[in-house]
Amino acid sequence: LSPGAKMGCFTFIKVMMILFNLAIFLSGGTLLGVGIWVKVDGESFLKIFGSLSSSVLQVVNVSYLLIVIGAILLVIGFLGCYGAQKESKCLLIMFFSVVLIIFIAEVAAAVVALVFTGLAETLLTGLVTPILKEKYGVNDTFTHIWNVTMTKVHCCGLNNYTDFDNSYFFETHGSYPRQCFGVSPPLAHPHLHGCLLQGCFKQILEEIRTNAGVAGGVAAGIAALEISAMAVSMYLYCRLDEK
């Protein structure tokens, strides 16, 4: 290619890099803002998006997850956008390094999820079950999230109904949550007749397996974007030596 064509190609890729990372930066800022909103005023958030609250994210603290993801996207977007605009080799290599670390972490997490599903279930049980026993029936937001989850997913507790044994709710009401009995209301004395015995974790795993094709396609798309971003940043980094 002629020097003019090379310069035109470089400029085009640089502009695309800036626009792409500007979108990432704005997305990160939005997620960070929503995460802070959920943390400060979770009840109003649930009232607005209650119908969407049956996802797997209900098992974890949504606000912290959004804040972390938003902060990461803000950093990536800033490094990529500002690094390309200023043609800074330092910022571009930092962008490349951060995206590479995230890519490796995602691959490692996928391998662990596939190979050590049982271990993940054990760890999740050890973390979530004590919180469920302690906070269900005490914290209104936490209780509402679990009620919606158990109703939508048709499940009871994380593993099964026994997660509520010796819990604050069971000791206070002498019964399992109403959602654990499906359409039948709980009896005065806790009885398993009509109770939903399966736990939410297994139900969510089953939903994930059912939609594995969609999840795999999304994961592959994200991986392709990350690889493309790394390739573009490295191209700009190398071309700066020739300018």
Write a short abstract of this structure.
Keywords: Glycoprotein, Lysosome, Membrane, Transmembrane, Transmembrane helix. By secondary structure, this protein is mostly helical. It is built from nine helices and no strands.
Top keywords for this entry?
elongated; single chain; Cd81 Antigen, Extracellular Domain, Chain: A; mainly alpha; 243 residues; 74% helix
Describe it for me?
It is a single chain. With 243 residues, this protein is an all-alpha fold. It folds into 2 domains: 1-86; 108-242, Orthogonal Bundle (Cd81 Antigen, Extracellular Domain, Chain: A). Helices cover 74% and strands 0% of the residues. The chain is built from 9 helices and no strands. α1 (3-40) runs antiparallel to α3 (62-86).
Fraction of residues in helices? Answer: over 70%
- What is the radius of gyration? 24 Å
Number of helices: 9
Our measurement of the CA-to-CA distance between the termini, rounded to an integer number of angstroms, reads 15 Å
CATH architecture title of the largest domain: Orthogonal Bundle
CATH fold description of the largest domain: Cd81 Antigen, Extracellular Domain, Chain: A
The CATH superfamily of the largest domain appears as Tetraspanin
The largest sheet, given as strand count, sense and whether it forms a barrel, is: none
**Strand/helix succession:** HHHHHHHHH
Low-confidence stretches: 51-60, 184-190
Beta-strand segment tally: 0
Strand percentage lies at under 5%
- Reading off the top of the CATH hierarchy, the class of the largest domain is best stated as Mainly Alpha
Structural class: mainly alpha
Shape: elongated
Q: What is the count of distinct domains?
A: 2
